[in-house]
Design brief:
Structural class: alpha/beta
CATH superfamily of the largest domain: Response regulator
Largest sheet: 6 strands, parallel
Number of helices: 12
CATH class of the largest domain: Alpha Beta
Distance between the termini: 91 Å
Strand order of the largest sheet: 2-1-3-4-5-11
Number of strands: 12
Number of domains: 2
Radius of gyration: 28 Å
CATH topology of the largest domain: Rossmann fold
CATH architecture of the largest domain: 3-Layer(aba) Sandwich
Length: about 325
Amino acid sequence: MKTTRMVLATILVSSLWFCGCAKKTPTTPQAASPSKPKIALVMKSLANEFFKTMEEGAKAHQQANTGKYELIVVGIRNEEDVAQQINYVETMIARKVQAIVIAPADSKSLIPVCKKAIDAGIVVVNIDNKLDAEVLTASNLKIPFVGPDNRKGARIAGEYLAAKLKPDDKVAIVEGVPSAFNGIQRRLGFEDGMKAAKMNIVSTQAGNWETQKANQVIAGILTTHANLKAVLCANDSMALGAVAAIKAANKSDQVLIVGFDNIEAARMLLKEGKLLCTVDQHGDQLAAFGIEYALEILTNKSTPADKETPVDLITGETLK
């Protein structure tokens, strides 16, 4: 029994000696890993397929760059909910994100809260809908814009449509939210194409980017202009409303429809011959481009210049 106790005591002493020595053994300290920057993507309506595609593209980019940054994605209920988008930016400021990539619902109204974010040391990158240049200058702000030349894209679609019509044919334009820079540019691009081909623009009305609103607008225009030959819509969601209104008026074979965005629903209509063309501004890449710019600014401590992203005409033939 004494022998057993002596053995146990020896083991215990040895263990204590080993632990004490282990504690005294110097170790190489590991450098604390820098925290990943938090980047917020603040979009317009997630009810619009275009912005769902943008969200998916952003998440795919983040997954492909695991460990490089954290991503927070928010989107408003509808295209006109400017107040909620401002609230989202306020929330991101409170959460102390390092960067905000924003597709503003309004080109002017979002500038004050973006300035607040910048004053708080947050990098802001503008995508999709360009912030108003005059208001930015008046606010002494420089916010890089990453996005397409909307006027050029709309003009390309207008020129394609013009080749299917005759001079003086009646056409109508359904624009987005009148105060949105990208909506203004698309309207101007459509006008460029139509005026160059000497078309008769009989009506230009706002559809506020929404299917139902555009449906109502086109139904009214068809009542007033029975010989309407084409409708140019500033986004595909409104083009869907135009298709429905024209079908309800039994004029599907008489009125050509142009869209913009190349969403999945539009591609289906192109294949069915119900939509003449749309414009792909590569929404899945826009957010990724904006995020890359934000990371570049955070890394290099410099503001890159605006970057124009591509636009491509999409037709039924393109999809075959």
